[in-house]
Amino acid sequence: MDQQEALSNCITTSNTSLPQLSEPYRGKVRDVYSLNENTLGIVVTDRISAFDHIMRQAIPFKGQILNQLSKFSFDAVSDIVPNHIIEVPHPNVTIAKKCDPIPIEVVIRGYLTGHAWRVYRSGVREICGVRMPDGMIEHQKFEKPILTPATKATEGHDEDISEVEILSNNIVTEKLWSQIRDVAFQLFERGTAVAYKQGLILVDTKYEFGLYNGELTLIDEVHTSDSSRYFYLDGYEERQKKREPQRQLSKEFLREWLMEKNFQGKDGQTLPDLPDQFRWSIYQRYSELFETLTGSSFEPKLIRDIDSDLDKVFKEYI
């Protein structure tokens, strides 16, 4: 694979010439088309975000990796809860059920890492209404996984929210929330087991849900490198004893790189450009997680005209 050609052919946006389709909803990573009253066409682009900002430069084949890793992971939990996938007819495209989204990111944390650690390090011992014990160190395992939800913002930053606030604000009913939290912990347990078999630790992750004909349905993505954090199992305990950084397969290294450049998405900060070599190293990390987690090799496909591909794929569903 020619590195420069791949870097210059990233999918940053998509459009279709089909007159029946309106402009898609463009999220941080996905372009979502309404194909008919029951069906969505989801294009997983190569965009990458951190601190709720989309980087100006995209990552080669990131969309393909996320799309295919999501398919693998959805299949691995399909006996726990229905999901939105109908078909994956293209490396970057998922055809999905059109669900009514529940505006909560359901975050499960098994370890004191990332955002939770930054909160803890500041001296705060509570996150999303959950009390964290004193005396913990970074990357330490919680006695039991904790649930730390966040609001799903259409613009700006997602915000931490407690379970009590979710119910008091009538975002969902108590019965539905009970089902969501039960399913989320089951999903995390399954994801943990799948990762463990491949020599990985599922550190934390987020789930998104919707309702399809009134039935709770898992949507968006699941157990990917965008939605989850993984450590290598081998050497974890030794690194903890020595207070050394853990070997990670996640987007945290991008966040750390941005923080080194004095960017955390705050007002007045300048979003830095991603150098080509760094972009390629991000692709390699995403590819490594795919191959480690699935046990199969990732075969990138250079997509030169995603818009033409979409016209062919979407025609079958209009």
Would you give an account of this structure?
The structure is a single chain. With 318 residues, the chain is of the alpha+beta class. The chain folds into 2 domains: 3-99 and 276-317, Phosphorylase Kinase, domain 1 (2-Layer Sandwich); 101-254, D-amino Acid Aminotransferase, Chain A, domain 1. The protein contains 9 helices and 17 strands. Strands 8, 9, 12, 13, 14, 15, 16 and 17 form an 8-stranded antiparallel sheet that branches. Strand 6 and strand 7 form a beta hairpin. The protein is globular. The protein starts with a helix and ends with a helix.
Q: Would you list the SSEs in sequence order as H and E?
A: HEEEEEHEEEEHEEEEHHEEEHEHHH
Q: Number of DSSP strands?
A: 17
Helix content: 25-40%
Could you tell me the radius of gyration in angstroms?
19 Å
**CATH C-level label of the largest domain:** Alpha Beta
Mean pLDDT: 95
CATH topology of the largest domain: D-amino Acid Aminotransferase, Chain A, domain 1
Supply the CATH architecture of the largest domain.
Answer: 2-Layer Sandwich
CATH superfamily name of the largest domain?
ATP-grasp fold, B domain
Note the total helix count. Answer: 9
What general outline do the C-alpha atoms trace?
A: globular
Query: How many domains, in number, for the residues?
Result: 2
Beta-strand residue fraction? 15-25%
Low-confidence stretches: none
